[in-house]
Amino acid sequence: MTATDETKPSGPVGESPKQSSFIDNFLKSPFSGIAPWIVLSVFSSPGRFEEAAAAALGLSLLVLWLSYRRGIGVHSLEVFGVLVFAIFAVLGLIAPHNVIGWLELWAGEVTNISLAAFAIFTLLIRRPFTLAYAKETTPQEYWESPLFLRINYAITSAWAAAFVFAAIVGAIGDAVLHDSGNFWTGWVLQLAAIFAAVAFTEFYPDYASAKAASAAGQPQPLPSIVRIFDWLPTFVLAVGIYGWVSGVLPDAVGIGMIVAGIVGAAVIRRFGADTA
């Protein structure tokens, strides 16, 4: 569910409306709370855990500061991140080398399990964490509606599933393949889970709202479910190009993924139109 159009003040002096809109949209989306966790997971490597934890903490504090400056509410996910990253930063300074080594190896799994636990906890207490973000862009009269709540239960569940999936594939890379930087388990599959959750977050409110309106006798164009996969062809194409150029993928696999990405994009354009 989206907010009605309103006249909003522009950003700080010297900032264009487009810049202001981009920053505000970022701060009002769950990704603003998830981005610092991605920073920790991506940049934590042998000898760099302290720097990764400090960077994640710094980004979390920056998000809180920008939200305060722009009159955007503080969200529980961001507060949770600040607390966890502060603990990690302290551990990076005082923990013995064997503890730091363990954290460096399992940083990806720790972040994904922490996020999954947080998301599941908010579902159990009947306060899906995406509610706070959705309220930023939805008129207050809808906040207690069953549809609004159902949408946020579904979106929070999708994010929880993405975090669990990312934790599992990351653990396979570390514990089974003994390769924390494995191209598939360490990067591709985990990024795919995040992109899928983002796509569902963007698609499902319109889809659920259109379904509810139709059920109430007010038919609306139903967004094509193909829209959930809009990101996939470009993702496959980018992975294929990077894997082929870097030599991570065999020529046949890399070229095959590039072709699949191009063909997939054409298919999405052909069948992605909304239906009545």
Question: Could you please describe the fold and organization of this structure?
Answer:
It is a single chain. With about 280 residues, the protein is mainly α. It has a domain at about 15-190. Helix content is about 70%, strand content about 0%. The protein has helices spanning about 15-25, 30-45, 50-70, 75-95, 95-125, 130-135, 145-175, 185-215, 230-245, 250-270. The longest helix is centred in the C-terminal third of the chain and has 33 residues, at about 185-215. Residues about 1-15 have low confidence and may be disordered.
Say how many strands there are: 0
* Broad shape: globular
Number of helices: 10
- End-to-end distance: 19 Å
How is the biggest beta sheet arranged? none
Helix content bin: over 70%
Order of helices and strands: HHHHHHHHHH
User: What is the residue-averaged pLDDT?
Assistant: 87
Segments where pLDDT lies below 50 for 5+ residues? 1-17
Q: Helices and strands: which structural class? A: mainly alpha
Instruction: List the quaternary state of the chains.
Output: single chain
Which band does the percent of strand residues land in?
A: under 5%
CA radius of gyration is 20 Å
